[in-house]
């Protein structure tokens, strides 16, 4: 009887799935690629994170206090970043490779779209670099060295 119930539950679950599906394939990007593709590169501190449901999707939003504009020049002191997935009450949607941001984190973000409104991170997690104790974790170098690498990429692209 238990086996029959499990089979019926599994079959019902298949019918409950949406009739359309989509997949996202991320192309591996190095630092040069995310730098060149980004409209804006900033360093800052995450000050707020929240999730919002739209239809059957959950998106996470993060407000970042900008400390330094490395690429792009704007008087904005904060940017709003949108990432797919997140948790809202009992509803949770996990999206592999989506940027993970938490309040209090120091980060470098490589951003695209209209950063005066809501923006996306280039290459998702590939365009998000976390900082701890002055070291950019994903690059394994001090912040100043990381910034010099970005500046060198920008200089070579300008020439």
Largest sheet: 5 strands, mixed, barrel
Residue fraction in strands: 35-45%
CATH class: Mainly Beta
Question: How many domains would you count in the coordinates?
Answer: 1
Helical content stands at 10-25%
The geometry reads as globular
**Mean pLDDT over the full residue set:** 83
**Individual helix count:** 3
User: Could you give the order of strands across the largest sheet?
Assistant: 1-2-3-7-6
Give the name of the CATH architecture: Beta Barrel
What is shown here, in short?
By secondary structure, the protein is α+β, with helices and mostly antiparallel strands. It has helices at residues 2-16, 31-37, 143-158, and strands at 40-54, 57-71, 78-84, 86-88, 91-93, 106-112, 118-121, 128-132, 135-136, 141-142.
Topology, element by element:
Blueprint: H1 2-16, H2 31-37, E1 40-54, E2 57-71, E3 78-84, E4 86-88, E5 91-93, E6 106-112, E7 118-121, E8 128-132, E9 135-136, E10 141-142, H3 143-158
Parallel strand pairs: 3-7
Antiparallel strand pairs: 1-2, 1-6, 2-3, 4-5, 6-7, 6-8, 8-9, 9-10
Describe it for me?
The protein is α+β, with helices and mostly antiparallel strands and 159 residues long. The protein has one domain: OB fold (Dihydrolipoamide Acetyltransferase, E2P), CATH 2.40.50.120. It contains three helices and ten strands, in the order ααββββββββββα. The strands form two sheets. Strands 1-2-3-7-6 form a five-stranded mixed barrel. Strands 4-5 form a two-stranded antiparallel ribbon. A hairpin with a 2-residue loop joins strand 4 and strand 5. The radius of gyration is 19 Å and the shape is globular. The N and C termini lie far apart (73 Å). 23% of the residues are buried.
């Amino acid at each position: 009887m238990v086996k029959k119930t499990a089979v019926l539950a599994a079959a019902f679950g298949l019918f409950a799935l949406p009739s359309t599906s989509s997949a996202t394939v991320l192309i591996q990007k190095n630092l040069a690629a995310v730098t060149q593709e980004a409209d804006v590169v900033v360093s800052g501190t995450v000050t707020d994170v929240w999730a919002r449901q739209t239809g059957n999707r959950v998106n996470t939003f993060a407000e970042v206090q900008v400390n330094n504009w490395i690429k792009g020049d704007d008087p904005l002191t904060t940017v709003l970043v949108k990432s797919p997935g997140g948790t809202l009450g009992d509803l949770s949607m996990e999206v592999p490779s989506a940027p993970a941001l938490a309040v209090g984190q120091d980060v470098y973000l490589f951003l695209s779209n209209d950063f005066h409104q809501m923006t996306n991170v280039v290459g998702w997690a590939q365009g998000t670099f976390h900082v701890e104790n002055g070291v950019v974790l994903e690059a394994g170098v001090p912040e100043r060295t990381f910034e010099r690498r970005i500046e060198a990429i920008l200089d070579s692209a300008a020439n």
